[in-house]
Amino acid sequence: MNDQHAAATAGPSEDERAVQDWVLERLAAHLEVPVEQLPEDAVFTEVGLSSIRAVELVTEIEEQYDLELSPVLLYDHPSVLEVARRVTEARRGVAAGADG
Q: Which of 20, 76, 81, 82 makes an SS bond possible with 41, Cβ 3.0 to 4.6 Å?
């Protein structure tokens, strides 16, 4: 099994899991529900996140992780897991750029 396939089939990394947990907490706050009521891989449209709240959540993610993200991030990556993966990749890219 090659490294890319192993990474694709493995669970989330520790960094990705931390981002996922943070996004879930903020999503729960926006929806005014306990975080325990949301599945770990919640799909934003299925849990009732409005477009205004989606843009607010993207802004919070940008501020929390010091990133510039697309305002349509949650539409391009429609689940908490996908957003966590994208944010983790973006953070690695920023860190790699800072090293170079």
A: 81
